[in-house]
Amino acid sequence: MTTYTAINLIARPTGGPIGPDLFEVVQKELPSVGEGQFLVKQNHMSLDPAMFGWMSPDTESYIPPVELGDVMRSSGIGEVVDSKHPDFQVGDRVMGMMGWTEYRLTNGVGLNKVTAPLPDEAILSVFALPGLTATQGLYSIGKPKKGETLVVSGAAGSVGSIVGQLAKADGLTVIGVVGSDEKADWIINELGFDGAVNYKSENLAEQLAELTPRGIDVYFENTGGPIQHHVFERMNAHGRIAVCGLIADYPKQTPDLAPNWIPIIKKRLTIQGFTMPDHFGEIPALLEKLTPYVMQGKIKHRAHVLNGLESAMTGLNLFFTGQNKGKLIVKI
User: What is the pTM of this model?
Assistant: First the structure.
């Protein structure tokens, strides 16, 4: 019997780096395919900041945590290698929730065919969770208008880079918050952002004031951290803040204090958190919105690829250190 490798979650993070002690690498027998099922060989797997929440014991989050002993949750892209399902044929390329595993037996729920003639890395970087998240948060919450100023944190990341490029294409002034001078150079000179702030540098308030002389109308929050307070102070009346992630707080036992609420009243700000599971039914409409920008060459991306399924166990720490350059992907 042929076997394959999967990785189970066996312990919860308690703060600090993610390591192999939280996981168990197991060998499983390749399953037989029953009626209405098909078998997928996963080729590329997405690593996303949302995984830190999925590993936590929080039962009141937007999605139940991964049960200890179960395969770690993730999305990915692969090829159908055996099928007894009328809608999926051998050779079809599919994308969706697969988990940290080389193979997945499924009835098709949560998986969609991929027909775009693009490499796996491009699909996961643009048309999968990053692009959908960027499109949903920017347009449903940010409601950008031509001539406004938008600031996005995590601007060189998979979501933030797409947010900035969409807003730039719509005629906004776009400032990105990044964690290195190299990333600042990339978003300005490659992606067309109007400016960048390295949050590890000094004089953050002064830099932000210089780059946003007319204040800030839209803030797309991916990271948290001290820069959040400086952006908040420069929000214009009736500004909109889409809260997508707070990666700076995920490894901490006690999160940092948020900005004072008084300016929310004085400036009549709209602040809304969101997660994509609430909007899976809107994916066709989101893709319809995003695709023209991609086809017109207005959306660029880059991928940071790790090799081998087991690299995921420590690869997640790149989100904490900021060493990932682009969409974090595991090649299986």
Answer: 0.84
